[in-house]
Predict the structure.
Amino acid sequence: MKKFAEKTISSQEIYSGKVVHLQVDDVILPNGKQAKREIINHPGAVAIIPITKDNKIVMVEQYRKPLEKSLLEIPAGKLEPGEVPETTAIRELEEETGYTTNELSLVTSFYTSPGFANELIYIYITDQLERVDEPAEGDDDEFIEIVEVTLDEAKQYVEEERIHDSKTNYAILYLHALGMN
Amino acid sequence: MKKFAEKTISSQEIYSGKVVHLQVDDVILPNGKQAKREIINHPGAVAIIPITKDNKIVMVEQYRKPLEKSLLEIPAGKLEPGEVPETTAIRELEEETGYTTNELSLVTSFYTSPGFANELIYIYITDQLERVDEPAEGDDDEFIEIVEVTLDEAKQYVEEERIHDSKTNYAILYLHALGMN
């Protein structure tokens, strides 16, 4: 769909960091006027809803510097260049939870904030988890704690805003809609 | 929750634009090492799920420059400084759809992408819509088309990825879970 497409006149890279790549484009609007568009370029991400054999959701708690607080989230991570999302999902699952799987189902995908960022996140689910004896370690600037919760506990955490991000709120609503208990 | 809190040593503003405000912080990690955190500061946002008397969802189609395509989304907009979310919701509803309401219920709120941005979005729902005779106009760089769809049509658009963003995918799943038809 290209309705109301905006033609790029020029594009300037403002910042290229570890996660955030910011560019500002000058564009021509459908009415012929000019405007600036600020764009965060992001490699994309995956998240996994891991369900244990005793019907708990494996979640991770971590500090989120932009919010200056920690959140409880489903495991997730950024795509490496050229990586297919399933590979990222299995890698992040192992690094963050110590579990692996050979069975992933895609639940949905969505742009997290299409007004200013092109981050696309894929959400997978699995109830086929196996413990890894010596799991690969994640980034050395990531500090996480694994928490296994029932769906009722997760709903309570949503109320308390301890769970409070798009992928995890979606996941909890999805499990509710599925009739998990 | 402050688990694994990261202490800020210094904070540098990299860019301050119309939508995106980028800062890079040097922090001390829980293990005493240093790291950089790239943070998009965002004023927050609201979205509304407007349901008409004949049980359709009022949506807007607009071009999203970061994706280089248009999406069909529920109406939404950014908070102005000091504005309470309900005020933003009613303003954006009128500007984008020509409807108003005096009855909004909060569905949920979530951070769209807590790894790098502090954007918090509030999602409201209303089935009490009134037409505004001469609705206020929105930003002069916004070009939108109003589309009223059934829930079944919306689910089809999710499949086709014409609906493909966190707030709108959440809204459709929410209406499905509610048993709307």
Summary: Chain A touches chain B through 75 residues (CB under 8 Å). The mean pLDDT of chain A is 95. Residues 7-41 of chain A form one domain.
